[in-house]
Amino acid sequence: SHTVGKARCLSFRQRAHEVRNPQENYDKYKRYNTFRRILRSICPKSGKDNQLAPLDFNTPARFDNHYFLNILEGRGLLGSDNVLITQDKEGEIIRQVWAYASNQHLFFESFVNSMIKMGNINVLTGTQGEIRKNCRFVNE
């Protein structure tokens, strides 16, 4: 679902200003450095926490498979996006990202199936669940 929407600067500041991937230090095609400059122009090292950037720079207002192309090019906005392929030791996720990047219809089918599965999750009500004051912590 990261193919549409925006993220706050606070969510991608580290991505914009920290070089973790050694490949990004020497980038003969300048694709990582150019993308990083774009991110830095939107999100400086400090301040502008609420400044927004599209999750998909290519087609920000269209639901399509360009998000997966971005990931393969190292241009995922959020750190969690890029981890999909940089931390995939077995290559299973990379194969799935390639499949979605090369076949939009496959991505659409998978997305529909995922939405149906999520819609079938039973909602906890009454004393079975809680509305958290802070989503990261169980209420006291």
UniProtKB/TrEMBL annotation:
This entry's Enzyme Commission designation comes to 1.11.1.7
Quick check: keyword Oxidoreductase in the entry? Answer: yes
Q: Which reaction does it catalyse?
A: 2 a phenolic donor + H2O2 = 2 a phenolic radical donor + 2 H2O
Annotated SUPFAM superfamilies? Heme-dependent peroxidases
Per UniProt, residues of the Plant heme peroxidase family profile domain are 1-139
Which cofactors must be present for this protein to function?
Ca(2+); heme b
- InterPro entries for the chain: Haem_peroxidase (IPR002016), Haem_peroxidase_sf (IPR010255), Peroxidase_pln (IPR000823)
Which Pfam families is this protein grouped with?
peroxidase
Q: Which UniProt keywords apply?
A: Heme, Iron, Metal-binding, Oxidoreductase, Peroxidase
For the keyword Transmembrane, the answer is no
Query: PANTHER family from the xrefs?
Result: PEROXIDASE 20, PEROXIDASE 72-RELATED
Q: What does the similarity note say?
A: Belongs to the peroxidase family.
Q: What is this protein called?
A: peroxidase
Q: Please name the source species.
A: Hevea brasiliensis
